[in-house]
Design brief:
This protein has two domains: 333 residues, Alpha-Beta Barrel (TIM Barrel), CATH 3.20.20; 79 residues, Golgi alpha-mannosidase II (Immunoglobulin-like, Sandwich). The model has no long low-confidence stretch (mean pLDDT 97). Helix content is 29%, strand content 19%. Helix 7 runs parallel beside helix 8. The protein is of the alpha/beta class. It contains 15 helices and 18 strands. The two termini are 36 Å apart.
Length: 481
């Protein structure tokens, strides 16, 4: 079958926002018992971030070069992360409700920025009306077959007793939907359609591999794309996702297959095992340039090229420790990884605050608040290179849709080209603590006598006898065009 993915995603730079922690606005009324904004994050409790706070920071995001925002869940919920959905049709009032979301969506679209929402369709919450009806009415509820009830009585809060219903990851706060029930399936399809009609630009799907109902995701795609053929459907699948990426389900996945080896190469022996334990991406052992090249060549060829260009590339998220903390505070590791992130096929995604050196260990620590009122804590060098690399991605089309060619790899250096029609961009990265002089073969890629000027880094050279001689800086990279 011919695979079609949304063209805009291939040209997008995403920014992931955890709404409770990004920014708050005085225009949104708040309850009184909020945690101090600068206090350490906890599993429970709220900081009070909201959607109008995002609206008021759109100038910042646009100046950074962001063209799309992925929001973790925004629907009404009794949790700060809002993966415990109470009402799929109401934006959480603490975020400003539906009115604030409408203002946000219109403000983003006026700026040419896209908005992707998090769809939690495998499970609901104890506060979801149909499940709450079961808690109130027991075996007399009309909604018994919306979930998997295994015995009576139910124990939704008493961890010392069996829950007597199926829940995601045995977390009794998250009762699992029975998607084999046509009524449940239709309910979820209508939720997806509703927000696409409201104007969102796509769905990020939470734990989609947990829904095994035959044809569910195929129907989801058909119904979403019938309303907006250019809507982006991206799944949270950490490993090989080929079964979902055949053109009939998702346009891409969160590309942890890129994240893991990129961390293993960029951070190498600096990786703190305590920050990656239990996560489904492989960040160790450290990779040499040659080993990284072999892994990345496999990643690039794993999916159809049309799918590869709409992968959501990242190296951290709300589900992981931040890369700066994984690398034990080594800022050059983040810089190396960011060079690769912004030059690799697929849409790059920046987790809010990474661009200013925000730290954070495993959940909930990675979900720290954005320190708007403490600019002295910002890593301005990191902000500058994020802006520069994002600008290059926007100005060099080959970095967005050009073909990918590995050119050179040794124990420390990895070099590749992105080629689109008459534009060739060469990227050289070096994870050694010392500069490395290397000879990169480019015969057939670029002609002799061709001048290459550094668009990132400080270098200029001419190709002689099919070879490009470069001085790769220590723990840094070059982008030549």
């Amino acid at each position: 079958m011919t695979i079609h993915t949304p063209d805009w995603v291939k040209h997008a730079v995403f920014y992931q926002i955890f709404p409770d922690r990004f920014a708050w606005s005085a225009r949104v009324a708040k309850p009184n018992n909020l945690q101090p904004w600068d206090s350490p994050p906890t599993p429970e409790g709220y900081k009070g971030g909201d959607l109008l706070g995002v609206v008021e920071r759109l100038d910042y995001l646009q100046d950074l070069g962001i063209t799309a925002i992925y929001f973790t869940p925004i629907f009404q919920s009794a949790s700060n992360h809002r993966y415990h959905t109470h009402d799929y049709y109401q934006v959480d009032p603490m975020l400003g409700g539906n009115r604030a979301f409408r203002e946000l969506l219109e403000a983003c679209h006026r700026r040419g920025m896209r908005v992707v929402l998090d769809g939690v369709f495998n499970h609901a919450s104890r506060g979801f009306f149909q499940f709450n009806d079961i808690l109130e009415n027991g075996p007399h509820s009309a909604y018994l077959d919306w979930f998997f009830i295994e015995g009576w009585p139910l124990h939704p809060y008493d961890g010392a007793r069996p829950a007597n219903y199926r829940a995601w990851f045995n977390n009794r706060a998250l009762p699992k939907f029975n998607t084999d029930n046509p009524q449940v399936r239709e309910f979820l399809m209508q939720v997806a359609e509703h927000w696409i009609r409201q104007g969102i630009d796509g769905w990020r799907l939470d734990v989609p591999f947990e829904i095994t109902t035959e044809g569910f995701w195929q129907e989801f795609r058909q119904r979403v794309k019938a309303i907006n053929p250019e809507a982006y459907i991206v799944g949270e699948v950490w490993r090989d996702a080929r079964q979902w990426l055949q053109g009939d389900q998702f346009d891409g996945v969160m590309n942890y297959l890129f994240a893991g080896p990129t961390i293993a190469y960029a951070a190498g022996p600096r990786v703190d095992p305590a920050q990656v334990v239990g996560r489904d991406y492989v960040t160790s052992p450290p990779l040499t340039g040659a080993e990284y090249a072999r892994v990345i060549d496999d990643v690039v060829t794993l999916y159809d090229w049309e799918i590869q260009l709409t992968q959501l590339n990242l190296f951290d998220s709300h589900d992981t420790a931040r890369l700066l903390t994984i690398a034990r505070g080594d800022r050059s590791s983040v810089r190396l990884a960011t060079i690769l992130l912004m030059t690799f096929p697929g849409a790059p995604s920046v987790f809010y605050g990474d661009e200013i050196g925000l730290e954070g260990g495993v959940d909930p620590d990675a979900r720290r608040t954005m320190p708007w009122d403490r600019p002295e804590t910002w890593d301005m060098a990191a902000l500058a290179y994020h802006k520069r690399l994002i600008e290059l991605r926007h100005t060099l089309p080959a970095l967005r849709t050009g073909t990918f060619h590995t050119l050179y790899a040794d124990d420390a250096v990895f070099a590749f080209a992105r080629k689109l029609e008459n534009q060739t961009v060469i990227v050289v990265v070096n994870n050694d603590d010392q500069p490395r002089r290397v000879s990169i073969p480019v015969a057939g890629m670029l002609p002799d006598g061709h001048d290459l000027i550094a668009r990132y880094g400080n270098y200029r050279n001419r190709i002689i006898h099919g070879t490009l001689e470069v001085q790769a800086p220590a723990r840094d990279g070059l982008i030549l065009a």
